[in-house]
Design brief:
75 residues; 0% strand; single chain
């Protein structure tokens, strides 16, 4: 079962997983690009009414933005 159970969106889940990998590997620039991609994709799906659990994805987007703003290299 994925992030939001059976209502998950595969395209968004893929972007989310990549952001998590980027952050865990200290790839801030890549994470920023993927967060922008996630935001753009969410807006597109929201405009087209093709997403049932938009609030959960928007909350996660906000958390990622906060993570990037507080990003500190671990080396």
């Amino acid at each position: 079962m994925g992030l939001f159970g059976r209502h998950k969106d595969k395209q968004l889940e893929s972007i989310i997983n990549q952001i998590r990998v980027d952050l865990s590997n200290n790839y801030k620039d890549n994470a920023k690009e993927n967060v922008a991609l996630l935001e753009q994709t969410l807006e597109t799906k929201k405009a087209n009414c093709k997403l049932s659990d938009i609030e959960s994805y928007e909350k996660l987007l906000k958390e990622f933005k906060e993570d990037i703003a507080n990003f500190k290299r671990t080396y």
